[in-house]
Amino acid sequence: MKKVTIARAGWGTWGHVFPIKSLIEYLNTSNHAKEVEKMYWFWKKASLEEETCKTLQKSINNLFFLRINSWKRRREKSIWAFIKNIKDLFLFSYWILQSLILIKKHKIDVVFCKWGYVALPVVFAAKLLWKRIIVHESDVHPWLVNRIASKYADKSFTWFENVFPKATVVWQILSNELITPEAKPSQKTKVFVMWWSQGSKDLYEGLAKVLSTNQELNNMHFDIVLWKLNQNLKPVFSSMENVSCYDFLTQKEMGEHYTSADIAITRAGTTSLAEQELFDLKLIMVPIPRTHDQKDNAKRYVKHHEGILLEQDDSEFLKKLEKTLISLKSYKKKLSWRNKEEIINKSKESIITTILYS
Known about the structure:
Layout: E1 4-10, H1 14-29, E2 36-43, H2 48-57, E3 63-67, H3 79-105, E4 110-115, H4 119-128, E5 132-137, H5 144-152, E6 155-158, E7 168-169, E8 189-194, H6 201-213, E9 220-225, H7 234-237, E10 243-246, H8 251-260, E11 263-266, H9 270-278, E12 282-285, H10 292-305, E13 308-309, H11 317-327, H12 340-357
Parallel strand pairs: 1-2, 1-4, 2-3, 4-5, 5-6, 6-7, 8-9, 8-11, 9-10, 11-12, 12-13
Helix pairs in contact: 1-2, 3-4, 4-5, 6-11
């Protein structure tokens, strides 16, 4: 049986890079590894994807990174955004040609599209060369690239129902590194705060204000991840005895925090929500205001998992956050004792089986 050469394209934020990284790692350590000739990761130069791929290459010999460009649709209403959209639209045919050459040169058999604008010329090139295309969509409402890619896909996978016609519903693609030994119960209610970097500076500053002025919350412990763009806020929390701050957490470290935490204060990206719900955390969700997908994701978790939705642009946001935390100051999560590793592996197994054998 001929070995398969796989290309993956997925974009931009940890919520999409982690799943592709996890899928590569799972395949490399599974019984399916012997069926794979080579694996390629398409994306831009000097990107998070390239950095992640270089790390994986230290232990995976048949993984390679291919640098390409692509058109990004800019939604701003300025004349410069319009000019750049027109310019990139003309260049798009060149990027398809670039992808055609790379797919042909490296004898790629199947393209896995997670999300993101760089994936689109790769998908078009794969279709022109009659290569198989597999799509995975995380969100309730798919973004433009996956809406287009799904029309050409041989198989689409989703997390939510009724996203694409004839799609197979699987779970999110999560990392096995999240699985850690169960932590000893803490007497204090533990809150894990992960707003990421994007547009979250005001949220972290607002939380600091709430914690410094409300004595009722002193019996809760807050583990706060600031990420790259908010590390200068660490001194704001330094005098608070019930707060621990972190610049960055690996997937393993995040799993350790999920295991010990009772509550998560989070954005509403589907990867983060799936991880936190798997570990039975009470979800307090603050979607990024300018995106429709995160709010709709949060609404699903309110309906099905008793999550709490707070609006960042609500004039009463800080008051509502404070009131919510006070109402949960003695909250302890109820463990479902689900087989987490089995749940994580099931979706990846479905996707990899389709990539290799369909």
